[in-house]
Every structure is written in structure tokens, then in C-alpha cells.
């Protein structure tokens, strides 16, 4: 059995993986708050997609790969199968997206949150172990079933809590605190699953086919940078509640009020209006001496 080191570069890789989890969770929770405020189905789908990308892509999958940078097996190099690696990333985003759709449609209930947590947690666990299956090295992988089951349980509980936070948390400090908790849960699931792994090296060493860590690191870092920048831009460009209220106020000020019909004075060729005025109580009638002589 080969010696395994999960922290080859010390505290750097776990610290970066935790920071990515927290960053992705913050962006995902903020996008989730926009889902509740959306007024149309298209807007809900848009913000749900961004939230799934932030949580599934950044908080979960890139955290997984960043932590894998510190994984080493003595006596063997490590390569990765690119199609399986990409499929694991898509699996994480899809699992989170479906979980958000479960809890975000219809009336919120405990049944929906539990169902979404079960589905999303199972998808996150499948992402983790498919990502492990993408590894290529001079040995065979085996897992301790008890720790695998524990990691799946942690993934389900973490996903359930994450979905509940996504549909209930609204304010800035609460979002930050929730993201810190989600980062602990995601990293806890990852390293619990990694602790279940053991490697038995082959007696005869062969050529290892696949992409190296350095080959995958550059596109993943660029993907994270552009993804985070795009999410931040989408959040900043989207109108807030204050913007909508101000726009509604301006529209109300610019809309002309309905005016009543204009006053129309009927013609009075024979002086009836003047006579009716003189006929009112208290009116002074002209005397004969006021009339000029004929």
C-alpha cells in the first residue's frame, strides 16, 4: 500500500480550497436572493443558473480540484482524464441547479428542502467520486465503505442546509455567515471522502496517460476568474429593489393625470345670465332714474 499525502504543499491548498468554497457560496446565495425577487420565469431561470454555477462550479467543484493539488501518492505520478473531469464539473452544477429548482418552485416546505437536499447531496457525492475516478496513476484505488457512507451523509446534510439557506437568507451578514458554514461543510465532505482512499501500487510501472495538474490548472484558474467576474458584473448590473422603486416613482411623476372636461360657457345673446344674476336675493335692481331718457 502506497503512502498518501493530502497536504503536500502544507496549508496553502486547503486554505485556497476553503476560500473558493466561501466565495462561491457568497455569490450563489446572493444570486438565490434574486430568484425570489424575480418577477418572470425567464429571470428566475437566469438567476437560478447563475446560482447553480456559483455554488456547484466554484464552491464545490473548483474547491475539489484545488484540494486535489495537494494530493500526492509516493512512488507514482498523477494524471487526470479530461472528459471525466469535465463531466464531474457539469454534474456538480446540474445537481445544484435541480436542487434549487426543487426548493424554488411552488410553496416552500420541509419536504421540498429535504428532497432537494437528497438529490443535490447525492449529485455532489457523485461529482467527488467521479473526479477521483478521473485520476490516472500506477496503482489501484480502493475505498473504506464506512467513510464513503459518512462522506455521502455529510454531502446530503450540507446540501440540505445550503438549499435552506439559499431560500431563507437575505441580509449581508447572514449571507457571509452562511457562506462560512457552507465552506466548512463542503471541505469536510471532501476530506472525509479522501480519507477513505487507499492506493495499491502496481509492481510493473507503465506509461500514465492523461493531463497533468499544471495542464489543467491554467484553464481552471482562468475559468474561475472569468466566472467570478461575470457573476459579480451580473449582480452589479441587475436593478435592485431601490432602483425599481425609483423607476416606478419617476414613471408616476411623468404620467399625466386625467383632466376633467373643460368649462364651456354657453352663449348668452339676450342677457339671460345677467337677468338671473339680478334676480338673486339681495340683488340691486336699477331704478327708473338710472335709465337714460329716451
Automatic annotation (TrEMBL):
Could you name the domain of life of the organism this protein comes from? Bacteria
Q: Which UniProt keywords apply?
A: Membrane, Transmembrane, Transmembrane helix
Q: Which residues form the MHYT domain?
A: 9-200
Q: Which Pfam families does the annotation name? A: MHYT
Q: Which GO terms describe its cellular component?
A: membrane
Looking at the UniProt entry, the stretches that span the membrane are: 15-33, 45-72, 84-103, 110-128, 148-166, 173-191, 211-236
Mind telling me which PANTHER family this protein's record contains?
DOMAIN SIGNALLING PROTEIN, PUTATIVE (AFU_ORTHOLOGUE AFUA_5G11310)-RELATED
Q: What is this protein called?
A: MHYT domain-containing protein, NO-binding membrane sensor
- Source organism of this protein record: Micromonospora phaseoli
Amino acid at each position: 500500500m502506497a503512502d498518501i499525502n493530502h497536504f503536500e504543499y502544507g496549508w496553502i491548498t486547503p486554505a485556497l480550497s476553503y476560500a473558493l468554497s466561501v466565495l462561491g457560496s457568497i455569490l450563489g446565495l446572493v444570486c438565490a436572493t434574486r430568484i425570489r425577487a424575480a418577477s418572470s420565469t425567464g429571470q428566475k431561470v437566469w438567476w437560478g443558473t447563475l446560482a447553480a454555477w456559483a455554488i456547484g462550479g466554484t464552491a464545490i467543484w473548483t474547491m475539489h480540484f484545488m484540494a486535489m493539488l495537494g494530493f500526492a501518492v509516493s512512488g507514482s505520478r498523477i494524471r487526470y482524464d479530461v472528459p471525466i473531469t469535465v463531466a464531474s464539473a457539469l454534474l456538480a452544477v446540474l445537481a445544484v441547479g435541480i436542487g434549487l429548482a426543487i426548493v424554488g418552485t411552488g410553496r416552500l416546505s420541509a419536504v421540498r428542502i429535504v428532497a432537494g437536499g437528497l438529490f443535490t447531496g447525492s449529485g455532489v457525492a457523485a461529482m467527488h467520486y467521479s473526479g477521483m475516478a478521473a485520476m490516472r496513476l500506477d496503482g489501484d484505488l480502493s475505498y473504506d465503505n464506512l467513510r464513503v457512507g459518512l462522506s455521502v451523509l455529510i454531502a446530503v446534510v450540507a446540501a440540505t442546509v445550503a438549499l435552506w439557506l439559499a431560500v431563507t437568507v437575505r441580509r449581508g451578514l447572514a449571507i457571509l455567515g452562511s457562506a462560512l458554514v457552507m465552506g466548512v461543510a463542503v471541505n469536510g465532505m471532501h476530506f472525509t471522502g479522501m480519507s477513505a482512499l487507499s492506493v495499491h501500487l502496481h509492481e510493473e510501472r507503465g506509461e500514465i496517460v492523461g493531463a497533468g495538474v499544471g495542464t489543467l490548472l491554467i484553464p481552471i484558474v482562468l475559468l474561475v476568474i472569468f466566472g467570478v467576474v461575470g457573476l459579480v458584473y451580473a449582480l452589479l448590473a441587475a436593478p435592485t429593489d431601490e432602483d425599481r422603486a425609483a423607476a416606478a416613482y419617476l414613471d408616476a411623476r411623468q404620467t399625466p393625470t386625467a383632466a376633467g372636461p373643460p368649462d364651456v360657457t354657453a352663449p348668452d345673446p339676450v342677457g339671460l345670465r345677467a337677468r338671473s344674476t339680478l334676480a338673486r336675493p339681495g340683488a340691486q335692481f336699477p331704478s327708473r332714474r338710472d335709465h337714460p331718457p329716451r
